[in-house]
Structures are given as structure tokens and as C-alpha cells.
Amino acid sequence: MREPDRAASPWASRSDAAIAAVPVEGGRPTPDAEGAANNTAITAVPVEGGRPTPDAEGTASNTAIGSHAVTTVSDAAGAAPAGDPGSEGPHVSARGWARRAALKAARLARAAAGTATYVGWKLVKGTAVAAFRYRVTGLAAEAAFFALLSLPPLVIGLVGTMGHFRSALGADTVLDIRTWLIERSQTVLTGQAVESVVVPLIDEVIKGGSPDIVSVSFLISLWAGSRATNVYVDTITIAYGLSGIRGVIRTRLRAFFLYLVGLLVMLILIPLLVAGPALVRRALPESAGFVLMFYWPVVVSLSIMFLAMLYHMSVPVRTAWWREVPGAVVALVMWIVGSVTLRLYLTGSLSGVSVYGSLSAAIAVLAWLYVAALAVLIGAALNAEIDRLWPSAGTARARAVREQRVGDEDGTNGKNSA
Hints:
Layout lengths: L9 H11 L3 E2 L2 E2 L1 H13 L3 E2 L2 E2 L1 H6 L4 E2 L2 E2 L3 H6 L10 H45 L2 H29 L1 H4 L1 H18 L2 H18 L2 H29 L8 H36 L4 H27 L10 H25 L10 H30 L3 H25 L1
Antiparallel strand pairs: 1-2, 3-4, 5-6
Helix pairs in contact: 5-14, 6-9, 6-10, 6-14, 8-9, 8-11, 9-14, 10-11, 10-12, 10-14, 11-12, 12-13, 13-14
Subcellular location: Cell membrane
Keywords: Cell membrane, Membrane, Transmembrane, Transmembrane helix
Pfam families: Virul_fac_BrkB
């Protein structure tokens, strides 16, 4: 095969000259020679009009010296000068940065949404499992029954006590309290239940209740009411996995104390809720709208605080108050929704002839108390599940001590049986 005539091409002679001009050491170009070789190779390309000739572009594409590649002429001709990003460069970079930031934000949002969904589902599932495991529905029925037993003597005791302070409160305030109790009863109970149970009870105490009746009623209400409160305290303790930490006597005393505190709070709050807005309207007539605007938010806040106190005092170890707020909020929402739903149902089912007859009013009150008890216990189960996912130091330590004690008792019983 005939070797091509290299001397016939001017490009060949220039290329050979460029390669020959590179200093070589050990068969490879020296480091200092690489830059010179690149420049020499580019300079050796025939140029016409500031650009390489068509014959030179293809020939000079891949010139290599040893294992070091020399920059091709075609790349060098089309590249922008050093430090010049080009006319499109900054705009492309800004758009790319914005696109990457948007994609990253979308990924973070999806991850946060997925985490929130997972945690929410775990809380709902754990709360439902705990409610079935600890027989929340049955315990709510027990609490509702004892609350129903304590309700008549409680109303008699409260209104009778206010009647004894008629001179301090004023006759108008006592009548306002009567009207307020009846109106609030109508928001959750049917008209038949209010007319058959609540109104006669309140009127009898206000008009002719004697101190002996009030005293006996208080004793009955303290026993039945503290028994209902004991159901809450005991169930909350079991839901937290801390049963046995507090003894039976201490539990009953704690329930009695909570019920007594509830009575005192009601004795103070009912006159304030009834007479407070009226007194403010009389003292500051121009601020009546302001007072009415904050009336229900204050009532809701006090209800949440009362439920949070019940949960906080029922746990046998010390916990932070804010940990009880989620369950209190859920319990209040469930109680409001359940009361409205129950009232709509009872209004439709008991408006005509009822199969329960004269017991319709009492059954309506019992059903409402059951809804309230169920809401309180489900809120407690939610707080217990939150504590299991993110345990506090006190509950985690108490659970560890209880599990160790139960394990020791099981081991001792096993040895005795053997």
C-alpha cells in the first residue's frame, strides 16, 4: 500500500513542524510544553477570514501529543472568550436555579405531607385500638349512669346554695341564673327533657328548698359525682399504661377532690357567666358588642382548661400541662358535634309518641351524658397515644418501673407455682 505524500499538503508540513517544536522528555512532552504545544497546534492551522479553512477544520480535529489531548480547532473557534458567560448563560443559570429550588421545595412538601399523614394515621389508629382495648364505650356508659344519679342532687345543691346567697347575689341574679341554666339546657337537650326534668327541679329548689334537703342532696351528689369522676381518673390511668402506680384509696380521694373542685368552679363561673356580661353592659354600655364578641371564646377556653386539668390531675405522674391540650380540644369538639347530632335525632324521634313514654326525658339526658363521657375518654386515649409516640420523662420512667415490678411479680409467682 502506497504511503500518502505528506509533502504535497501545506497542512502536513505545518503540523509536523508544530509537533517537532514540542520539547520531549522520556518519550512524552514535558509539563511546560503542553501549553506551548496547544498554541502551536492551533497556530499551525491555515486561517482564512479569521476562521480555519474548510480543509483544515476536519484535519486538525484530533491532534494528540502522547496521552495529552490538544484542544481542537473547531472547539476553539466556537467557544466564547474566557470570562464571558455568553448571551444566554446568566438567564439559563437563573432558570435552572429556580427550577432546582422549586423541585427541592416540592420534594420537601411531599415529604412533610407524607410524614404528617403517617403520624396522623398512626394517632388515629392507636387511639381507636386503645378505645376498644380499654372498653371506652362501656366505661362511658358507667360514667354517664353515675353522672345521671348525681345530676339532680347536684342541681339542687348548686341552685340551693345560690339561693342561700340571694342577698349577696341579688334576686335578679338568681332569676338570671335560672333562665341561663334553662337556656343552656335547651341547647343540648330536647324541649320535653327540659320541661319535664330541668325546669321543675330548678323551680322547686329556688322557691322552697330547705337547708336539710340541700345538705342531703350535696352528700348524694358528692358520692355519685365522685364515683363518675373516678371512672375518668381510672380509665385515663389505664390508658397511659400506669395502672397500679396510684393505690385505690388515693385514686378515690383524687376523684373526690376533682369533683369538689369542679363544683367550686361551677359555683363561681355560673354567676360570672350570667351576671358578668350584664354588669359590663350596665357599666360600659358602649362596649356591649365587644363583650358579646369575646363571650363564647372565653367559654370555650375555660372548657378546654377544665378538661386539661382533669387529664393532668388524673395521670399519676407529673407531666406538662400543654401535653393535655390536644385531647381536651378533641374532646370538646366531639362533645359539641355529638350534642348537636343527638339533639337533632332526639327532636325528630321523640317529637311524637315515643315508645319510652315518661322515660323519654331521662333517657335523653342519659344519652347526652354518655356522649359527653365518651368524648372525654376518647380525648384521654388520644393524649395517651401521643405520650406513647413522644413520651415524657416522667411517664417513660413510671412505665419502666411498672413493667419491672410486673416482671418481678410474674417471676415470683412462677417460682411459687413450681
